[in-house]
Amino acid sequence: MALSTVTVSAVMKDSFRTEIQCSNPFVIDQPVGAGGKNEGPNPLEVFVSSLPACICAIARIVAMQRGIALRGVEAHAEADIDKNFLLGKTTEGRAGFVAIRVKVKIDADMTEAEKVAFLHEVEKRCPIADNMAGTTSITAHVVA
Length: 144
Fold this sequence. Notes:
Elements: E1 9-12, E2 18-21, E3 26-28, H1 43-66, E4 70-81, H2 83-86, E5 97-108, H3 112-125, H4 127-133
Antiparallel strand pairs: 1-2, 2-3, 4-5
């Protein structure tokens, strides 16, 4: 096993603005209607967007490794969530997404069956898909 650690930091600023420090810093916020200033995507959009972004990246890796002339990949994700739970209006259900659907368009000289097999390999190797579908331990600690 060759473990590698990915590190990011988040700092809450005024209103719902959160500044993310990583290889390419960015801002997460909420829409104006939800109390934010709409200065960036909200946390749910960031989470969901990581799946199609990872599918695109892993598709490129798999294609390069297999010598496939991949002209492009388009991935569209949509996810269902019960916002009443996260807003504390109910204790029934769960805070997370209950379903995530991804539609993937692969531009390469492959048959439909080859595209399906290719996408299956991409999904299998995608760390974001693996984390969304599986269980990863999460620990949070209060620090001084």
